[in-house]
Structures are given as structure tokens and as C-alpha cells.
Amino acid sequence: MANVVLRISKKQGPVPVACLLALMLALLACTEEATLEGPNGLGAVVVEGRINRGEGATVVLTRTASPGGPAVFSLVTGARVSLEDNLGHREELLHLGSGHYHSFNIQGETAVSYTLTIETADEKITGHSVMPAIPIVVDSAIHQQGHDENGHLYSSIVLYFQDPPGQADYAWIRVYVTHPLLSKKYYFFYNDEGADGQYRELPLALPMLLYYGQTARVELFQADRQTYGFFQAVLERVQDSAAAQDEDAFFLAPPENLSANLSGLAPGYFSAAIRTEKSVAVQ
Q: Which of 54, 92, 93, 123 has CB 3.0 to 4.6 Å from 81, enough for a Cys bridge?
């Protein structure tokens, strides 16, 4: 299936999620399937780690609430976080405050392998991810209108690009829609299974009609299969959660079995990705 659009409710279509990983600690209050407990009875450290092509790495660390304790989720500020690549570079990330760590010397490069190491007072987590070798180049993005099964008008953002031949391609796509009263985000997924190397026309159907003067910004994150699957699973959990009834809900860290490229199935993800951005103005 070359294009996957996650639908969250029968009424609303694709989910607008306000923040994708500050992600899902709210879900833990609604489910009993995961026990997020680290050493010494502390909540587990949740990792949101990414390095995009041409950018430094950013890592956000959150600690889940202790089992049985109040639903308060703290930021991890005293960790030692380092990044190295297979080119021989190594850097200790600088803590910028509020649990955010950043690299300034190592920048994301295609076909390079990255290893992330996180050390706190009570645990050590490692992550590993390889940036895709050949980028997806989006030639253009346009706005189109169509009719749904009830005859109502809706908008689509259509992407045109050449799928890189000879490699498995996975991407998650975020669409920001500006609105006079409220801006929204929608998430979509793409993979090239059964369509490797083909020129693609990829429609992203929105559950709304865009009007003259509005803009939509599309971000395509071309990553590995593990990261792709992680974000799909996260949004499926949102779909199954009562919290999804509030489309503007903020979701924090995922349950422990939602993990991508991290040692010991630590909750969260580490991703080396190629980020592509296009803006579309409705005319």
C-alpha cells in the first residue's frame, strides 16, 4: 500500500494532533497494558530523538509518572547525552533547558549511521538509526478540491515526486493548515511497497475545505521503517483512546511497547530523517 491515511474517527477524518511527542502519557491514564517503571521505582525515561539532514540532533527527554503516583510528567534535565556517527565524529549534546538537548557540530547527512547514548543516574539508553541514502525530492505540491460520498466539497494537497529506485522508502507527513481562528495539523503516511522507483502523485485528503488566502505547509520526513511504524502505532493508539475525542488534546510519551531504534524497548524513538518542506497557497 503506497499511501496510508490514518483516520481517527468516523466523523472527523485524519486526526489533528497538537504535539506528536510530547505524545501520549495521557493514554496511560486510559489503559492498563503498560507499566512504565524504570530502575528504583522511578518512571521510565521517554526519548524523542531526531537528526534531520543538514541539521543538528535534537533530543527531548521526559520521565513518566511513577506507578501509582500523580499524573505529573517531569523533564529530564541532568542526563549525559552524546551522539556519534560512522564517520568518526562524536559530540556531547548541550542541554538547552526544559529537557531539550542539541548538537551543534554533527549535522545530519544522507547514508550516515548515527548512535545516540543517553545516561542518567539510574539507566543507560542507546539508539541507532541510518539516514536514507537517496532523498525523495518533491517537485510540486498543489491544492485541489473534490466531493466526498455525500457530495460535500473537501480539499486535498497533492504531492508530485519521483520515488527513489532501489531502496525501501518510508515517510510520515505532517500538514499544517492555517486558519483565522485555529491552525491544525494532520498526519499521513507513505511507503513505496509495490511502487518502487515510480513517479508518484500522492493526494492527501483533508477533512475540511480550504478557502482563498489560506495556506498549508507540508513536511515530509523520510525515515527508516522502524520510525515509520512507530508514528503509525502512536496515532493508532490515539485512535483507540477516549482522549482522541478531543482533537486538540496534547498527548505525551508512549507506552513501553511503542519504541523505535532504542535499546531495551525504551519508550520513544530515535530517527535519522530527510526533511522536505513545501508550502501551498490556496488561490
A: 93
